[in-house]
Amino acid sequence: MTATLTRTVCKRTVAVATPDGAQLHATVEGSETAPVTVVLAHGWTLSQAAWDDVSTLLADRVADGELRLVRYDQRGHGRSTWGDTEITIDQLGSDLAEVIDQLVPAGPIVLGGHSMGGMTIMCLAAARPELFGDRVLGVALVSTSAGDLTSDPKSAGGRMAKVRPGMLAALLAGARVLERLRNLVPPTSPRHQKMVRGLLYGADATDEMVLEGAKIMHASTLRSFIEFMPALGDHDKREELSALASVPVEVFVGDNDKLTPKRHALHLVEVLPHARLHQSERTGHMLTQERPQLVVDGLLRLIGEATAGRRTS
């Protein structure tokens, strides 16, 4: 009989404290001696669970000591708290800086951001450009945008921009009642899944993918949906991406992405001429679920470049 060796991977959960009092729930997997750390930031009304499929595909490399993996819940999402600061995407960039400073104080880093997580990375690059090319040696931008999310009135972002601040305030005031009504149509409901599929997924998405994504989003509060909506509309880093030009960048977009359609990815590769663009057919906004291997392949290219650069320096 052949014995099966079981590899033990160090995994811990950490609370990252921010200056304004938020507690960011983070998961750290792998050895501190790994040659590179991958830090993943998720999107609006999601949580670090949105990276589960990517994380699973990276698990063997984490176990082999090739990389360390850090995922965290953005403030107001998942198990993270809100803090006392006005909600902006710039603040999320500051939060990511805290995650790096506290959990990855040394060594090469590759960043991955999906949707709002990609915007978070752009805000970090604008505020802390010295990190890029020194500590941050590669960036994966997945289904994301540098700005101008609301100018197209036919887009999902354009339609959301029509919701006025007064209406948002009224929705927030009635959040408790709305949460109870929301629970009447749970993620297992065909009606719920049809809505989620139509907005976020492409033609090849399985029912299992849609259900899992619906569960992750349903776990977010209405407050997350309401308070972050104006921040997403205000996000604009189109003229502040120079720090990203100093590192390899992989850009991913689905051809059926309704939230951050292809024009946003094309803008990124236009202003970052060394960025590599990956367009996935029959794919929507939830590319980390729909095409996780595509994202993993990009991360592995970035990791290879990051570690090769250190070996030859």
List the helices and strands and how they pair.
Elements: E1 11-17, E2 23-29, E3 37-41, H1 52-63, E4 68-72, H2 89-103, E5 109-114, H3 116-127, E6 136-142, H4 156-161, H5 165-173, H6 175-182, H7 190-200, H8 207-219, H9 222-234, E7 249-254, H10 262-271, E8 276-280, H11 287-290, H12 292-312
Parallel strand pairs: 3-4, 3-5, 5-6, 6-7, 7-8
Antiparallel strand pairs: 1-2, 2-4
Helix pairs in contact: 1-12, 2-3, 5-9, 7-8
Overview features:
single chain, 313 residues, alpha/beta, Rossmann fold, 8-stranded mixed beta sheet, 8 strands, 43% helix
- Roughly what fraction of the amino acids lie in strands? 15-25%
CATH architecture: 3-Layer(aba) Sandwich
- Structure class: alpha/beta
Estimated radius of gyration: 19 Å
Low-confidence stretches: none
Task: Provide the helix percentage.
Answer: 40-55%
What's the tally of helices?
Answer: 12
Going by CATH, the homologous superfamily would be: Alpha/Beta hydrolase fold, catalytic domain
Spatial order of the strands forming the largest sheet: 1-2-4-3-5-6-7-8
In the CATH hierarchy, the third-tier topology is known as Rossmann fold
How far apart lie the N and C ends? Answer: 47 Å
Q: How many distinct domains?
A: 1
